[in-house]
TrEMBL record:
RCK C-terminal domain ranges (all copies): 74-158
GO terms classed as biological process: potassium ion transport
GO MF term list: monoatomic cation transmembrane transporter activity
Protein name per its UniProtKB record: TrkA-C domain-containing protein
Organism: Halosimplex carlsbadense 2-9-1
Gene3D superfamilies documented for this protein: Regulator of K+ conductance, C-terminal domain
SUPFAM superfamilies the record matches: TrkA C-terminal domain-like
Amino acid sequence: MKVFETQLPGVGRRYQVSFPDGGTFTIVVHNDGSRKVFWRDDPDGDSEELFTAGERDAQKLAEIFEGVFFEPVADDLDDALSGARVKWVAIPDDSPVVGQTIGDVGIRTRTGISILAIERADQIIANPTPETQLLADDVIVVVGEDDAHQELDTLLSRS
């Protein structure tokens, strides 16, 4: 598989993925955040537009390909997990949570997000405790519903 990226002035970026068995998958990411997705079977043929996706739908598709999208399908699973998403979130250098502990920030209480792990440089801190300090450039692995992820984004970026 080969991936080619092309800047499209005034439009955005085009990503073309060529597969060894044939066919080309193309995604055009427009400057407005929308994505158009195309497929071409034959190198000499025309591309067929498959669909257009907004930023939120594109993010869900990326999560599926990345293997982090979680949508329970069995009826007997706990309803609390329905719609849960696992995400990797970088803590910005200027975030107000830098230097504080997980417990002091109250991430779960304030956002509904649970921290599963912290990636810190070459180290993984699995199941961090409330006493674990949050540092700039930490990547926290979190689980929660979409609304909780939005609350976390707001909490991490408050000044």
